[in-house]
Amino acid sequence: MDSLFQTLAELGNELLHEFLYILPYLAIGVFMEAVIRTFRWHVKIRHALTRFGTWSIVIATALGVISPLCACATLPLVISLMLGGLPLAPAMALLVTSPLMSPASYSMLSGMLGVGWANIVVACAVLLGLFAGGVTHLLRNRGFREEELFRQELPQGDFHDPDYPVEELRCECGKQLSHRVNRCTHNKFLVFLARFWEGSLKIGRFALIGMVIEVLAGFFIPNQWLTNLLSGDGILPVLTITFATIPLHLPQVTAASMIFGFFLPDPGQVIPLAPGPGIAMLVGGPVTALPVMGIFLTMFRKRVFLLYLTLCISGTLMLAFSWRLLSSVL
Q1: How far apart are CA 162 and CA 216, in angstroms?
Q2: How many domains does the chain have?
Q3: CB within 8 A of 127, min separation 6: which ones?
Q4: Which of 224, 245, 264, 316 has minimal CB crowding within 10 Å?
């Protein structure tokens, strides 16, 4: 019994040490996202998506990078935009980009893995968004026109309406603290504080989940095996991580927290994360979000889901191997 308590104490100390390290970066990222959500800058950009034709792919990709919305929140938004006339190509660009980057993700990636890796993920998010949107645009006349996408015709109405008949798409944002504060006070500062609190809970939860998984994995799995996998230069580590993360719900902050915990560097030390496995984990993990794939199967025809999954996997592998090759040349 004493050994059990000692083991739990060691795990708790390690978890606390990691959380205190990332706490400043968490606060900075949440602050930036709270500002964006308070002034609704991402909503203003979103309204432009249906008006710019092919250029909407570029706009959707940019929106996905700066938007504080996660994949699960982005999909109902995308479906509502598609019902309003948005083609599948920019919708796909937004869907694959949004899980990969946000202000909070950039801040925490910079703090845990370094600015270099944060910039790499930004570049990968942009390239993957343009790739997904471009390929989908080319396939538009081959079974991917707007009227051929959904399993059944969705009822008209506002997703924000609590009585909207499709439960999977019904938005619960009206119940959030920030919306209640806005309805009662219309005070931007109080709304900002509420947004900051909501972001702290959401992003802090994802970070904590990643650290818990990492601490438990490090306890039961030889840590050297995990670090060798993430720092390996061969093809096998890239393939292993890419396909192993497909069934996992692995948000960006969770993936970064796990990698940081596996290496647990000293202050100022550079994590020896290899380009290929790093991209496979930080791009392939978040982009194949399990809840999103579940809604895809429920709402869309199978070919749309297969297109989404194929774009995510092929795009991740192309980015991982290309970055690996580029790093070896440089």
Answers
A1: 40
A2: 1
A3: 315, 319
A4: 224
pTM: 0.78
Closest CA to 292 of 111, 120, 96: 96
Domain with 71, as residue range(s), is 2-329
For the chain, list residues with pLDDT below 50: none
Q: What is the pLDDT of residue 292?
A: 73
Which tokens is 124 given? 């990968």
From the list 97, 91, 78, 79, the residue with the least C-alpha distance to 137 is 91
CA atoms in the 13 A half-sphere facing the CB of 300 = 28
- 2: exposed, middle or buried (C-beta count within 10 Å: 0-12, 13-18, 19+)? exposed
Distance CA 46, CA 48 (A): 5
Per the CB < 8 A criterion, the answer to whether 278 and 109 are in contact is: no
pLDDT at 181: 75
How far apart CA 83 and CA 152 sit, in angstroms, is: 12
Q: What is the pLDDT of residue 213?
A: 64
DSSP-assigned states of every residue in 236-304: HHHHHHHHHSTTS---HHHHHHHHHHHH-PPTTPPP---HHHHHIIIIIHHHT-HHHHHHHHHHB-HHH
Tokens of 182: 């806005």
CB 89 within 8 A of CB 136: yes
Q: Could you tell me the two tokens for 106?
A: 């950039």
Q: Is 150 helix (H, G, I), strand (E, B) or coil?
A: strand
CA distance linking residue 330 with residue 327, whole number of Å: 5
The pair of three-digit structure tokens given for residue 59, joined into one six-digit string: 């706009």
Amino acid identity of 88?
A: L
Q: Are 15 and 212 in contact (CB under 8 A)?
A: yes
Residue partners of 59: CB distance under 8 A and separation at least 6 = 45, 48, 49, 52, 90
